[in-house]
Design a protein that fits this description.
CATH superfamily of the largest domain in chain B: NagB/RpiA/CoA transferase-like
Strand content of chain B: 15-25%
Strand content of chain A: 5-15%
Structural class of chain B: alpha/beta
Radius of gyration of chain B: 21 Å
Number of strands of chain A: 13
Shape of chain B: elongated
Shape of chain A: globular
Number of domains of chain B: 2
Number of helices of chain B: 6
CATH topology of the largest domain in chain B: Rossmann fold
Strand order of the largest sheet of chain A: 1-10-7-4-2-3
Largest sheet of chain A: 6 strands, parallel
Oligomer: heterodimer
Strand order of the largest sheet of chain B: 1-12-7-4-2-3
CATH superfamily of the domain at 39-298 in chain A: NagB/RpiA/CoA transferase-like
CATH architecture of the domain at 39-298 in chain A: 3-Layer(aba) Sandwich
CATH topology of the domain at 39-298 in chain A: Rossmann fold
Distance between the termini of chain B: 51 Å
Largest sheet of chain B: 6 strands, parallel
Helix content of chain A: 40-55%
Chain lengths: 474, 227
């Protein structure tokens, strides 16, 4: 984890002073933004599909009790074992117990943000079980000893040069060159044998299909099937907001998910997994375990933000976030970064630990605009800010500052006088229309210039304008 | 109290209910799928087969295509592809009954059992025009790894099994029995954009996908979709 002892401000400062990071983020997020825009322009039914997708998610949330039981019933009928976990610890304990019962020495894992959320990588480490991450980006960050910085591209913070240096040091034999194609080939070589010698495969789920008890995984690499087919045991850990009524409902959401995430129309591999290997099947696991994870989701249902249960984890909100694009995912210090992460983290870690995150937002509304299930992210972020204020979590300086401002706002004469002095004072520091540095404004001017204010305040100009036109207005 | 009871109890309390009407939930779920054409891409041509072919050779799927008039033409199509790509003439066949009666030797195609990093020939159960997907259901004659371990994947698909949209596949699959362990919708070769967003083929699975359309149902263009 990125030093939890550091504050969000410290982590952001470190991120902003790392030019390499900005390059890495722009290369991937910039491409994702452009490709999404093209994919949506090519899909004229997008707006209608988005509205339907939102309604499907809301329908499931409003009937979550029914769909949980329905999914469980059908999964059990398919031969799966179903477990329920209240907390992340409970979920990890269940998964580790299954691994131990299976006598697992090596576990392959297909990328799952839920697995990251519950701390499964660490739980496997503590249990002394070898964990092999099979998604290319997860493989990169496992070798680097890092955590994901994006929910779709966990290694977004790494440039190809970073990856080349890492593989050269850790792969045996090393990659032929620093070319991206050679790096991918090298990872393929490293992981191929591990897929086939794994005792347990662990995956997440993009959708849980209630009427069959199946779950759906989507990947472009094919690592989910290579993870879940050869081992004797397949474990799924999934948050229960992933439920959908049927496969046809999943198709509606898949049309939204893939376009929003990568700008593709459909992932290369979309696979439904239902129960263990059937009698006579050529391959597949003998045991199939599904761990349904709560970890704050029932709390969200009861106390909000309920709309966040719609999230299909596409990552579009972070690709389009001006803050994320500057500081990257690690600065958030949480499993989920960006706008959706800033809404989810206070649920998972508590608002007292994470009150900075809902503040790290310009409220430009871009995330809500691109969200494929219409989550009102800016409103939810404002909701956390409001709750943080009401619960007295804002620092004293902030409370005093806002208190002072509120006092002035209630006394317009004082407010106008204050702005007249402020404008005069600020103009002392202007150079060519910009303020490059000014006492008490370092937090702003360290990173960008501040536009110098006009000679007069708005109210002065307004009064002058009124007296000039007083005859017309009479 | 078990975690299950606690969770279901909390969910019920949050929703303010302890019981529900299954029929009305099912009815509401059905209304969410109404007017399907309003919430999915329209196909570029009225023919599902032609739309499928356009889709799979397009940049988003990036496969190559050959057409044969019957399954008997498959070995020849495989030989053509191998020659064109200058590949070894040894292939592994999916253990499906319809392949064993074909004359592979006459086409100059040698058979072996090595699927790891090799060339394989498989038979998709359905094709989906909307996405350009090939669908496989796990079975005794359909190993799932067969589509993931090779370097080059050659897949035959019968024209009459190509359906217009994903929902049509679900309907067709439903009519053949209960859900298999795995239903794989394969849409192109294995790829990754995990390093700087640039696409590289052959991440973990096949780097090439070659589709052989077996045009044995009727002449393409007059095909009824979803049959």
């Amino acid at each position: 984890m990125h030093a939890a002892s550091q504050s969000f401000m410290d982590r952001s400062k470190a991120a902003l002073s790392n030019p390499n990071l900005k390059v890495a983020i722009e290369r991937t997020a910039g491409t994702a933004e452009r490709k999404r825009s093209t994919a949506i322009a090519d899909f004229s039914e997008f707006a209608a599909t988005r509205e339907r997708g939102r309604r499907i998610k809301d329908h499931v949330i409003a009937n979550l009790d029914y769909y949980l039981k329905e999914f469980e019933r059908n999964a059990l009928a398919s031969g799966a074992k179903v477990y329920w976990a209240r907390t992340s610890d409970e979920a990890c304990r269940i998964a580790i117990d299954i691994c131990k019962r299976a006598g697992a020495k090596r576990v392959t894992r297909s990328k799952s943000m839920l697995g990251e959320e519950i701390g499964l990588p660490n739980a496997l480490l503590e249990a002394g079980i070898e964990r092999v991450e099979t998604d290319l980006a997860e493989h990169i960050i496992q070798l680097a000893g890092e955590t994901p910085s994006h929910i779709v591209w966990p290694a977004m913070h790494k440039t190809r040069e970073d990856v080349a240096a890492l593989f050269k040091a850790k792969h045996n034999p090393p990659p032929e060159s620093g070319d991206v194609a050679d790096l991918v080939r090298s990872a393929r070589r490293q992981l191929r044998e591990k897929f086939l010698s794994s005792d347990v495969g662990i995956s997440g789920a993009n959708f849980l299909i209630a009427d069959t008890g199946a779950l759906c995984t989507v990947t472009n690499e094919g690592n989910a099937e290579l993870t879940t087919t050869p081992p004797r045991t397949h474990i799924v850990t999934a948050g229960f907001e992933k439920l959908v009524p049927s496969i046809d409902h999943a198709f509606v959401l898949l049309r939204l998910l893939v376009r929003s995430a990568t700008g593709g129309d459909f992932t290369q591999y979309t696979t439904f997994h239902c129960g263990p290997k059937r009698k006579g099947d050529a391959d597949g696991p003998d045991d199939f375990h599904i761990v349904l994870v709560d970890n704050g989701r029932t709390r969200m249902l009861a106390n909000g933000p309920k709309e966040m249960l719609r999230c299909i984890r596409c990552g579009a909100c972070m690709n389009h976030c001006v803050v994320y694009r500057q500081i990257g995912g690690h600065a958030y210090g949480s499993t989920y970064p960006g706008p959706m992460g800033s809404v989810l983290t206070p649920v998972l870690d508590g608002l007292a630990q994470s009150r900075d995150l809902p503040h790290a937002c310009t409220l430009n509304g871009k995330c809500e605009e691109v969200c494929p299930v219409e989550i009102p992210l800016p409103s939810l972020l404002r909701g956390w800010r409001d709750r943080s204020w009401r619960e007295g979590l804002e620092p004293r300086l902030m409370r005093a500052g806002i208190g002072g401002w509120a006092f002035l706002a209630r006394h317009p004469a004082l407010y106008h006088l204050g702005t007249i002095f402020a404008v005069k004072w600020m103009r002392l520091f202007r150079k060519g229309g910009w303020i490059r540095s000014m006492p008490f404004a370092g937090g702003w001017t360290e990173y960008r210039n501040f536009p110098a204010p006009a000679r007069t305040t708005f109210m002065q100009a307004y009064k002058a304008h009124r007296s000039e036109n007083s005859d017309d207005c009479a | 109290m078990t975690a299950r009871e606690e969770i279901l109890g909390d969910v019920g309390r949050a929703l303010g209910r302890t019981a529900w009407d299954k029929a009305s939930i099912a009815a509401e779920a059905r209304t969410l799928l109404e007017a399907p054409d309003a919430i999915r891409p329209s196909l570029p041509t009225p023919s599902a087969v032609e739309s499928f072919l356009q889709r799979v050779v397009g940049p988003k799927v990036g496969a190559t295509v050959d057409r044969v008039s019957s399954l008997a033409g498959l070995p020849g199509a495989v030989a053509r592809f191998l020659a064109e790509k200058k590949l070894d003439t040894k292939v592994a066949l999916q253990p499906t009954a319809s392949f064993t009666s074909l004359d592979w030797a006459r086409a100059g195609v040698m058979l072996h059992n090595e699927i790891n990093e090799g060339v394989v020939v498989g038979l998709a159960r359905w094709g989906i025009a909307e996405t350009g997907s090939l669908v496989f259901h796990s079975a005794a004659d359909t190993p799932i790894l067969f589509n993931f371990l090779p370097a080059v994947n050659i897949v035959a698909v019968h024209a009459h099994t190509i359906v217009p949209h994903m929902e049509d596949y679900a309907t067709a699959a439903c009519s053949v029995g209960s859900a298999p362990r795995n239903a794989c919708l394969i849409t192109g070769a294995s790829g990754t954009t995990d390093i700087e967003g640039s696409l590289v083929k052959g991440a973990h699975g096949p780097r090439d996908l070659h589709i052989v359309l077996v045009d044995d149902a009727a002449t393409a263009g007059s095909l009824e979709p979803g049959t």
